[in-house]
Sequence to fold (155 residues):
Amino acid sequence: MRMEWMGEYRDIVESLIRYCNIYAGVYKKESIVYQDVTYSFSQIQVLEYLLENEERQDNMSAIAARLGISRSNFTKIVNRLEAKGLVEKSSMQGSRKEITVTVNDFGKQLYEEYSHRILKHHFLPMFRELEKIPPEMYPHISGALYHAMGPNKEE
Fold:
C-alpha cells in the first residue's frame, strides 16, 4: 500500500526516517574514542552546545531545554563528561543550585578532533548536496526539520 499522505515529500520523509533510525541506534552508545576516552554522540552534542554558547552562561536546566532533552538525562551526560575529564561544573554566584558547565582544554581538544572527523566523513557529503539548493531556501529546510517532530515546548 502506498502512503499517499506523504505526497511529493516521500523521498525527504524516507531519508529523514532513515537518518533518525541510524542516529538513534548510536546516539547513546559510547563508541567514539579519543586518547583513550570513549564517548557518545549524545555527549559530543552537549560539548558542542557548550562550546558554541560559552558566552550565554546558561544553567543546566536551560541547556537541557534548548537541546530538547530531559534535565535528568542532561545531568547524567554532564556527570559522565565530568568523570571523563572533559568539562567542569561550578555554582553560579549566589546560588548553589544554579550550576554552569564549561568545557576544559582537554574537552576542547577532543571536540576539535571529532569535528574534523565528522565533517570529512558525514557532513561534507551533505554540504555538497546542499550546494545544489539556493541559499535562500536554507531557512525553509531548517524550519521543516525543526518542526518535523511537532511543536516545541517553548513555543
User: Anything to note?
Assistant: The mean pLDDT is 86. DSSP finds six helices and four strands in the chain. Residues 64 and 71 are 5 Å apart (CA to CA). Strands lie at 32-34, 37-39, 87-92, 95-103.
